[in-house]
Write a structure and sequence with these properties.
CATH class of chain A: Alpha Beta
CATH architecture of chain A: Alpha-Beta Barrel
Strand order of the largest sheet of chain A: 1-2-3-4-5-6-7-8
Shape of chain A: globular
Largest interface: A-B, 46 and 46 residues
Order of helices and strands of chain A: EHHEHEHEHHEHEHEHEHHH
Oligomer: homodimer
CATH topology of chain A: TIM Barrel
Mean pLDDT of chain A: 95
Low-confidence stretches of chain A: 239-244
Structural class of chain A: alpha/beta
Strand content of chain A: 5-15%
Number of helices of chain A: 12
Distance between the termini of chain A: 23 Å
CATH superfamily of chain A: Aldolase class I
Largest sheet of chain A: 8 strands, parallel, barrel
Number of strands of chain A: 8
Chain lengths: 299, 299
């Protein structure tokens, strides 16, 4: 039947599990991080945030991302993305051969200062310097705007303010912009307000802190958004609330989208094999589809 | 801002936690079941499925529902609903003063036979007899159609078939019909297909088996559905997968709807007090909002 919503024919999923997910777990051996990335590629994922270039003292689980990139090597058709917190991280990531960079700035001034010791203006200036470095290497940059749907400090963040930051990120040289619901405060109404301001040419990075990640992704989809971050097993978020606060699960998104006729490029049975590998490595997963499987037995 | 979806101004929520939720937990003292119902009423819920009149040997947690109704007494403005599996249960529920009855039939022939030892035709004939009993008592009946979005036996269930069963239930005397996603196989596309066939004058009873309960509720909402079952804490489903397969959490639904300007009549802070009581009684809850709270601190 024809659906009563206008949905895109296909979407681009970026699995951030090996970075946003694993960073809250005890460090895994590099070979296991590589197996996980490979399992995601085998399932059909074409962009994976494989790690970050942050201080290994601050985030031990992300130590060795340069070695991980070397272990994986370039993979035709696959983008191995790395998160970088600053210019030094960007130089390291580019030297290690990352195919794309993500850099975070915040829509919330207080969140920015509390978490990065930088004002938003300083953060944007840094984004510009990182974009200059990346451009010289021919590497695209995606600026992830945190707290785009609300801030734990200020509460509401005006969509016009989010729009201003997104435009500034593009002006600074970002090829892409992603709006992140860092603390799970978004609802479809908030998604609509930001998309109305920023346009549907954004990525959405959504958390399940309040169980609304998937419905927010759906809301974005019906408004024309075609890029979504997700995390194998739904891991991520706070290490103190595993199962509660992670990213939108890749399994849920693929199950939902494929059943609604939206192509993800991902095969659910192969994805569930990746889920089982992840569960062996980190323990029980928040993803309900990882537990229940797809609509029919075996998928 | 004006939202890009047409949403109803208000919805009717029926909390089925004291029945569909508690039935999978070890039996609670009647006084605790009553405290829970009272906490839900204090939060603003106006219809609550307080229990069922099934064999106490089959479902020990639901023993004493007649006594529970007596303990609660009639409550102005509140509908204390009871699930009945057969005419004997209906007689008992009516004698105990239940304000409304729910009766389940299945859209899946094999599920019907496996779970109730009755064909769908037998189930419908029984619904007709229960409606006759209820009508004599002036008590409304809601027929809940299980497997309306898929069956663990046959897989797909044709929406036209669901439409036929819903029409037959209405012909049998049901005041209301609710379509249930018994094993969590629905997606927005399946919701749209059933609503197109049956109309939006149905209730939706949705499970989180595959994490899609809330997004399915949202999909129904954008198609004009205004009645939703939900369960405090998201409890329910299989006792062997607590946290994975329960009903849509009342907390998530209220958080989402109220933030999108849809009136539920429920106050989230009071609802979270009910959540805390439930957690004291049954342990950790699946609901993410029960853990994280509302958008702002304290709500």
């Amino acid at each position: 039947m024809t659906l009563p919503w206008t949905l895109p024919a296909a979407v681009e999923l970026r699995d951030v599990g090996p970075r946003d997910g694993l960073q809250v777990h005890p460090p895994l051996p590099l070979v296991d991080r590589a197996r996980l990335v490979t399992a995601l590629i085998d399932a059909g994922l074409r962009e994976i945030e494989v790690g970050s270039f942050v201080s290994p003292r601050a985030v031990p689980a992300m130590a060795g991302t340069a070695e991980l990139l070397a272990l994986l090597g370039p993979i035709p058709g696959v983008t191995r993305t790395a998160l970088v917190p600053n210019e030094r991280g960007a130089r390291d990531a580019l030297a290690a051969g990352a195919d794309a960079l993500t850099v975070t700035i915040s829509a919330s001034e207080r969140y920015s200062v509390a978490n990065t010791k930088m004002t938003r203006a300083d953060g944007l200036a840094q984004v510009e310097r990182i974009c200059t470095l990346a451009q010289a290497a021919g590497t695209p940059v995606d600026v992830v705007v945190s707290c785009a749907f609300g801030s734990p400090y200020e509460g509401d963040v005006a969509p016009a303010e989010v729009g201003r930051i997104c435009a500034a990120a593009r002006d600074a040289g970002a090829q892409r912009v992603t709006c992140a619901d860092t603390t799970g405060m978004a609802t479809p109404a908030r998604i609509a307000a930001v998309v109305a301001e920023v346009g549907s040419e954004i990525g959405l990075h959504l958390h399940e802190t309040r169980g609304t990640g998937l419905v927010n992704a759906w809301a974005g989809l019906t408004l024309g958004v075609t890029r979504f971050d997700c995390s194998l097993g739904g891991i991520g978020g706070s290490p103190f609330a595993v199962g509660a606060a992670g990213n939108v699960a890749t399994e849920e998104l693929v199950f939902l989208l494929e059943d609604c006729g939206v192509a993800t490029g991902v095969e659910l049975p192969a994805l569930l094999r990746a889920s089982r590998l992840l569960a062996e490595l980190v323990g029980e997963l928040p993803s309900a589809v990882a537990r229940a499987g797809g609509r029919s037995a075996g998928a």
